[in-house]
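Exercise 7 asks you to align residues with tokens for two separate proteins.
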Amino acid sequence: MATTSRTASTWRNWAGNVTARPVREVTPASVDELVEAVRRAAEDGLKVKAVGTGHSFTAVAATDGVLIRPDLLTGIRDIDRAAGTVTVEAGTPLKRLNVALAREGLSLTNMGDIMEQTVAGATSTGTHGTGRDSASTAAQIRALELVTADGSLLVCSERENPEVFAAARLGLGALGVVTAITFAVEPVFLLTAREEPMTFDRVTAEFDEHFAENEHFEFYWFPHTGNCTTKRNNRSAGPAAPPGRVSGWVEDELLSNGLFQVACSLGRAVPPVVPAVARLSSRALSARTYTDIPYKVFTSPRRVRFVEMEYALPLEAAVTALREVKAMIERSPLRVSFPVEVRTAPADDVTLSTASGRETAYIAVHLYKGTPHRAYFTAVERIMTAHGGRPHWGKVHTRDAEYLAGVYPRFGEFTALRDRLDPQRLFANDYLRRVLGD
């Protein structure tokens, strides 16, 4: 199958808040064809960006040059059971990887709650779940393959090109185009999920305890209420006891997607009703416990479209910052229909990981697609930056290179590597100019 190259139409991300008009789109069917597409773009004086499913809320993948779509670079290349690794093509959706691994009796150790993204898109922007001991998707990478600006194909691991490996696991598309990723995997296991309503005051008072006692703890607070939903995922000896088909559909589809969509639409059209709807929503989800394989517990369908901002804070700052967000909403005229999500991650050694070098808590705020978000996000961002927060690379924020250099101890290491691998800025765009500088 040969590369398809065509004059591009307008590209939009999943949330619809970012658009781009590339000169052409290329869909390479092999690594050689991708190398050729990169070389040709350089000869034509065009910038290059690869794009996955567009699940980022920032313009990290936008370009007015050549847009590379990895739709044909999919599938598992190799499973090494002795080493505990799987090597997968960059355009493979996480959903297909999870299903294929489960069929082989294998699983990633941890994952985020959405699995529509490609493996390269998810890791390049720092997608993460929640975990006391197990880290983000990028931190589970054991090797990767990268096409650089001069058309070279670099294989990177702790042993081979280790300085590139440290940075390229979460490379923002700034160092080259990732063509394949080798992940650590383990024999498939069971998780028991315990979902339970809890008051805001209780969950924040007991946060340290819940974090310490559970492998994966997260909670959602419903603004305009004192109510939260908590989720604890821990490994289980079994047996598997997935949610019943009807009760699972009621919780995951009817309440979390169908009725939530109606509530968000109503809130966008008539903002004064939001607090009353929030009180109803926060009481609609009941306690439940179920046991299943990891991807069926960690991930859930997200059909209600939204825009999101998320900040990574030092773990010890999480509760204080969240209480400040609650106080800010209560004294403001804001009407917030989406819950605020709190997750954690252990420190990792990825150069620009939001958890690089420190135990981390994440606070994410969302608003329904089409709702004006600037006032809310600006007020939240002010609180997060006062605590040394690091913005998620794929979510809405206003930070620039000067700020980011102050919160990432290894920021200069990344930009120096970029100078070496892409001195002509073949892979640059407006977003990277803002967050990495020129």
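Second protein for Exercise 7:
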Amino acid sequence: MRIIADRTVCAGHGMCEALAPDFFRVGADGIAAPVADTAAAEPELLELVVDSCPVQALRLA
């Protein structure tokens, strides 16, 4: 299981980085991106990160 980030939807709120800093970073452009293989994360953490995105830019695959 991994998270797909839609960079065209991301508004840079940083909830993903706040909840899973080992897996996400908000870049200088203000857009979040995965920085590590999220498959290593606990499924509960991935679900929390996806559910916490205020603009629904994340989905599980």
